Structure formats: structure tokens, C-alpha cells
Amino acid sequence: MHARVTHFYIQPGKTEGFRSAVNSLIPLIRKQQGFHALVVLHLPGTKPEATVLSLWDSLDDLKGSEKNMFLYQALSRVLSHCEGFPTIREHEVLVSEFAAD
Question: Which CATH class is domain 2-89?
Fold first, then answer.
């Protein structure tokens, strides 16, 4: 399993817009081959931040979301609520455990 970790600085007063933009992407990300999970962490404050963690079955699946333009569609929806460009890193998942729904 692999993860894309994207860190955003949200413009003050734009957290709800950021949340709405991410929510609008959920139907699209669910259609991506190998998509496993999405977690968005929020750090409130005078300079709010968000870390978006998406989990993929394989590195090929993660990279595939770049090749088919999903990642760029996602960024275009959320960047109007952010300051600057996010940092994006890829990680191999060493341990994961998810509760059954």
C-alpha cells in the first residue's frame, strides 16, 4: 500500500470552502483504480493547515491518478482556498489497520 501526503496552508476564513472542495472530490476519487481511503486532518488557528492523506493499493495506482489527471483536477478545486502550492510526498505504508465499517 502507498500513500500520497499533501500539506496545505488554508487562507484564513476559507476552511469551510476547502472542506466543500474536498468533499466534492470524493465521488471522483472513489472511481480511481486502487483508491483505498482518504483522511483530511485540520490544524486550526490563525494560519490554518490541512494534511490530506490518500491511500492506494499500489504505487502504480497512486501514479495512475496523476497520469489520468485526477490529482490535477483535485488541486485545481482546492487551491483557491489555499496560500501557495502544497507540498506533496509519496510514502510506502509500513503498517495499517482499519476498523470494519
Answer: alpha beta
